[in-house]
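Appendix C: a fully annotated inverse folding record. The material below is reproduced so that readers can follow the format used throughout the book. The structure is listed first as tokens, followed by the designed sequence.
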């Protein structure tokens, strides 16, 4: 079954990840840099070549997740509300690279660097996928 959903598939998955990252930050599990580095070093290694379902297959399917995930699920952030941290950021006009202030502070050079990095990495990943992996 396929149907339209608000915010589309990728945004919905990403919003769940953002909400959990903010929950981890707000509850003192880790700081911004550690959460970002952890995601980059783990999710970043596989997400450019496959989606979550292929990753589950590559890791052994449901049996490899059943024992470790079951106790985690009830502890995940599940609020339907915008996290307080994002409400405060909006009130403080912390719009990230749009104005140089977000979870990080950005100089003009930083803004240029991250915009170029995003563009270059996106094209490099797209090229690698086109050459090496079938489009699912």
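Designed amino acids, in order:
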């Amino acid at each position: 079954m396929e149907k339209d959903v608000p915010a589309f598939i990728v945004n919905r998955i990403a919003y769940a990840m953002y909400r959990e990252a903010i929950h981890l930050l707000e509850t003192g599990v880790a700081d911004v840099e550690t959460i970002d580095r952890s995601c980059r070093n783990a999710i970043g290694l596989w997400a450019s070549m496959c989606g979550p379902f292929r990753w589950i297959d590559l890791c052994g399917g449901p049996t490899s997740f059943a024992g470790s995930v079951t106790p985690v699920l009830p502890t995940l952030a599940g609020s339907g509300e915008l996290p307080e941290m994002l409400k405060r950021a909006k009130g403080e006009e912390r719009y990230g690279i749009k104005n140089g202030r977000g979870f990080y502070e950005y100089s003009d050079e930083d803004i240029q660097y991250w915009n170029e990095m995003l563009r270059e990495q996106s094209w490099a990943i797209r090229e690698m996928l086109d050459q090496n992996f079938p489009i699912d």
